[in-house]
Design brief:
mainly beta; 7-stranded parallel sheet; 174 residues; 10 strands; globular
Amino acid sequence: KGDFPAKLGHLRHLEHLTLRRINMNGSTVPGNIFKNMTKLLSLELECNLFGPIPPSISDLSNLVHLDLSGNEFMGDIPNGLYRLTKLTKLKMLSTGRLGTFSNQVSKLKNLKYLNVFNSHASNGSIPDGIMALTQLTNLDFFNFTGISKPIPVGIGSLTQLKYLGLKHMNFKGN
């Protein structure tokens, strides 16, 4: 138990950071923690964190794997997350009360694996930007609230999909 270790931000040569099943006692991640961790390729934070996703996440330009599961993040998903164009895997399970998953997700062209649990659609449908992610092989949405429209027709453009999971959703219409 304890506060998020801000000194981690000094590890400039770190390529992989996994903090899993560590109870950070609901602490917040310092906003600039990732500013100097530009060599990071993989980040897994599953440690009962609260507050916003730190904006400095956009500084992780070499990141290919991001897992923010098991936290209680609140607020909007920072636009900087959509600038992580090398991402191939994005996992956000039980991430708290995050805002809408934006259409800007279309910028993540290298994404192959997208797993989102407990997110919200503000316009009533799965974000259209996901249909532009033609490299996706795994797409898994669980308990994606705010859905009031049919399954998007554009989902057929995701021809590389090997796994499609749409669970606990309230699609309406044909």
